[in-house]
Amino acid sequence: MVTRLAVALDVPLRQHNALLVAAGFAPVWRQTDLAAPELARISQAIDFMLGQQEPFPAVVVDRHWNLVKANAGAVRLVEFLVGQLTPGVAINLADALVAPDVLRPFLVNWREIVRHFIRSVEVDAAIDGTAETGNLLARLLAYEGVNAAIKNDAMERTPDPVLPIHFSKDGISLRLFTTIATLGTPRDITVQELRIESFFPMDDETATLLRSWAR
């Protein structure tokens, strides 16, 4: 009955396990490291998607926006904005976006971006109900200027069909939009929680610049 309810309500696999444990049963869904041999084909498929996105940026994150993988286009963009990255250092893209001293100084429309992003984290926290996601939300809301930004719900009317991410540094402007993909029919918690975010140029100038960086 627990399994039938979880399937009918489209409960995520992590929460499905929690329901089973609460009902006195063993969890049925496993959580496998992406580097494990069992997920080799999945990892290869993700690498293929990242490669196909070149020279435009693409990243893979987990459910808490910890960076799992990135293509060369993403590395070039981030290093242009914040300088050379240190290999092996863990990166959380939520903190990088919301904190005052990483990407924010270069985001022209940071207030609008952060309003939409915080709403998405609020939805995640409401869905999974875990302390980890709740702590992530609390940490993001504690950053300077965030509460003021999300309280201002005035919608900015622009001709753009999607909300652009507008970076500006040293007189160089980049305008991008993103798509987020997930893996279909997951039967592993790790696989279900991966998000593949691809960045596309909003104008010819941005596309030309990103292509020139890859030469």
Describe this structure in words.
The chain has 215 residues and is an alpha+beta fold. The protein folds into 2 domains: 1-30, no CATH class; 31-213, Beta-Lactamase. The chain is 46% helix and 14% strand. The protein has 10 helices and 5 strands; from the N terminus they run αααββαααααββαβα. The chain has a 5-stranded antiparallel sheet with strand order 2-1-5-4-3, with helices on both faces.
Low-confidence stretches: none
The computed structural class is alpha+beta
Total domain units: 2
Secondary-structure element series: HHHEEHHHHHEEHEH
CATH topology of the largest domain: Beta-Lactamase
> What is the CATH architecture term of the largest domain?
2-Layer Sandwich
CATH top level label of the largest domain: Alpha Beta
Q: Radius of gyration over alpha carbons?
A: 19 Å
Mean pLDDT: 94
Number of strands: 5
Strand order of the largest sheet: 2-1-5-4-3
The DSSP helix count reads: 10
User: How much strand?
Assistant: 5-15%
Major sheet: size, sense and barrel closure? 5 strands, antiparallel
Alpha carbon gap, first and last residue: 57 Å
In which range does the helix fraction lie? 40-55%
Shape: globular
Mind sketching the topology for me?
Layout: H1 2-8, H2 13-22, H3 40-53, E1 58-61, E2 67-70, H4 72-82, H5 93-98, H6 110-128, H7 131-141, H8 146-151, E3 165-169, E4 172-181, H9 189-193, E5 195-201, H10 204-213
Antiparallel strand pairs: 1-2, 1-5, 3-4, 4-5
Helix pairs in contact: 1-2, 6-7
